[in-house]
């Protein structure tokens, strides 16, 4: 095809024990937004990594702008105008935004006629102008460690634009963004297309694909299932093709059977690292068999509530009781042993040891207990392996080398499945889910929702913190809405509409 920016012809990529991409052929046209859909571990990121030069195909060819690429690398990809925003950002925390953007191609001027000196001032001006042009307004002098997730994403986009990329690959770009940030990013993607860029959007969020993409290719277990025009394909059709079966996200939630109070939080106050109070006198209870959901816009204190309950953040004031035992100042392990399971918001920072194998991560909270170790403290490797194999099978955790796979090598969604499997299998009276379906595909979301409801049926108390209002409305028995660190309203889920919750989330109090 004459206007093809990228042609992938019969490409196969294998890793030990798995065929990540199996004889895939497709073409991406100039000036379109092309979406690549598939379950977690379907091979989307691997295929895009080959276009970006991180991997080479074992079989088949890749053509960029009519030129067949050989001995391909990210540096060569950048020279050919290909840029990629990875799912997990590649930024240096203690560098400024400008330093991150120019890294590897620093502008140099000569002092005294011969001494090379990096001209960062000039770069900062260029980056400022570039960010205004694409409505990505950032402060080039701010350090990465000081900025939020949405700004970091803008920096990754500016890195591509600074290198004059005209093919832009976004790998799961909205997986860690709030709904407001997602809408803003989609506007940026449209703006980039209007400026003549070709966009490849790797995602499993079908509503977003429907909103911005022109065409979509659907992968299932490494194989290309179909290429569709987005305008004429429903999200249900996309979901069914991705998963290979009928997907149902309408939950069948039996009437609750509440038990005794499991968690009691009273007048909780928490400060952040700058000693600013971010949780202000919050009180609530969760009974056995109850899903208590906290709804709110990101950054209003809900993450700090979870961290205070789990012991990751100190409590300024107030009490936390688990099954009538006060645990307010217990260390983290003691809270775990008392009966708290925790699925954190940031799976890589707080949930996993990325360089360790699956076996170690799945036993991370139980390795010091039988059957994983003897009474004398000697580890039993065979117990780690058999336990990991059972969880891999039960929770459909996909990897290239089974239980021996290094955790970093798994897709983001499969890493999330690992954490959910480990925490649910602890069989604790309280389970805290923070953004449990972030980064998961529609099939995995369906399974996760069903797992949460099964734990509810077992009589577990569940604290659900989610930015997805649809998720809260589907699962919650009781909803608390938080704004600016205060719990504005707590009601049975049946007594609140999405519009009412949205109003509370924006700080509108009752009778206003």
TrEMBL record:
The family database entries (InterPro entries) matched by this protein are listed as: AAA+_ATPase, ABC_carbohydrate_import_ATPase, ABC_transporter-like_ATP-bd, ABC_transporter-like_CS, P-loop_NTPase
* Pfam families for this protein: ABC_tran
- Membrane topology of this protein: Peripheral membrane protein
In terms of superkingdom, the source organism counts as Bacteria
Keywords, sorted A to Z: ATP-binding, Cell membrane, Membrane, Nucleotide-binding, Repeat, Translocase, Transport
Q: Where is this gene product found? A: Cell membrane
Residue ranges occupied by any ABC transporter domain in the UniProt entry: 6-246, 263-509
Q: Which GO terms describe its molecular function?
A: ATP binding; ATP hydrolysis activity
Q: GO CC annotation: what is one?
A: plasma membrane
Keyword Cell membrane belongs to the record: yes
The identity of this protein, by name, is: Nucleoside ABC transporter ATP-binding protein
- Species source reads Anoxynatronum buryatiense
């Amino acid at each position: 095809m004459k206007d093809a920016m990228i042609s992938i012809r019969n490409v196969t990529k294998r890793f030990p024990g798995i065929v990540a991409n199996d004889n895939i052929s497709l073409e991406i046209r100039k000036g379109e937004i092309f979406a690549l859909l598939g379950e977690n571990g379907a091979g989307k990121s691997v295929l895009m990594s080959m276009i970006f030069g991180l991997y080479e195909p074992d079989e088949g060819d890749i053509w960029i702008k009519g030129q067949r690429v050989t001995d391909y690398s990210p540096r060569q990809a950048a020279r050919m105008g290909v840029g990629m925003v990875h799912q997990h950002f590649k930024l240096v925390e203690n560098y400024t935004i400008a330093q991150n953007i120019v890294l590897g191609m620093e502008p140099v001027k000569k002092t005294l006629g011969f001494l090379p000196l990096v001209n960062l001032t000039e770069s900062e001006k260029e980056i400022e102008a570039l960010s205004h042009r694409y409505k990505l307004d950032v402060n080039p002098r701010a350090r990465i460690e000081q900025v939020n997730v949405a700004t970091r994403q803008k920096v990754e986009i500016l890195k591509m634009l600074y290198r004059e990329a005209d093919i832009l690959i976004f790998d799961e770009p909205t997986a860690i963004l709030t709904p407001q940030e997602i809408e803003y990013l989609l506007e940026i993607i449209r703006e980039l297309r209007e400026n003549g860029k070709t966009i490849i959007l790797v995602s499993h969020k079908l509503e977003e694909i429907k909103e911005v993409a022109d065409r979509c290719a659907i992968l299932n277990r490494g194989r290309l299932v179909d290429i569709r025009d987005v305008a004429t394909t429903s999200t249900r059709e996309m979901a069914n093709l991705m998963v290979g079966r009928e997907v149902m996200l309408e939950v069948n939630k039996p009437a609750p059977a509440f038990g005794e109070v499991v968690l009691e939080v009273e007048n909780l106050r928490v400060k952040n690292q700058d000693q600013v109070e971010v949780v202000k006198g919050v009180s609530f209870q969760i009974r056995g068999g109850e899903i208590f959901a906290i709804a709110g816009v990101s950054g209003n204190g809900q993450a700090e509530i979870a961290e205070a309950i789990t012991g990751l953040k100190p409590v300024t004031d107030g009490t936390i009781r688990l099954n009538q035992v006060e645990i307010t100042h217990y260390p983290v392990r003691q809270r775990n042993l008392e009966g708290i399971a925790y699925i954190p918001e940031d799976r890589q920072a707080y949930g996993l040891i990325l360089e360790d194998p699956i076996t170690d991560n799945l036993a991370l909270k139980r390795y010091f207990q039988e059957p994983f170790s003897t009474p004398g403290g000697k580890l039993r490797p065979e117990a780690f392996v058999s336990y990991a194999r059972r969880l891999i099978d039960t929770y459909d955790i996909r990897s290239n080398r089974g239980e021996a796979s290094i955790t970093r090598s798994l897709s983001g969604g499969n890493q999330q499945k690992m954490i959910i499997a480990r925490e649910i299998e602890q069989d604790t009276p309280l389970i805290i889910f923070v953004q449990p379906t972030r980064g998961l595909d529609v099939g995995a979301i369906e399974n996760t929702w069903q797992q949460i409801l099964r734990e509810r049926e077992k009589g577990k108390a569940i604290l659900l913190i989610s930015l997805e209002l649809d998720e809260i409305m589907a699962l919650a028995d009781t909803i608390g809405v938080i704004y600016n660190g205060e719990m504005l309203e707590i009601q049975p889920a049946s007594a609140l509409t999405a519009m009412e919750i949205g109003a509370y989330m924006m700080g509108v109090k009752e009778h206003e």
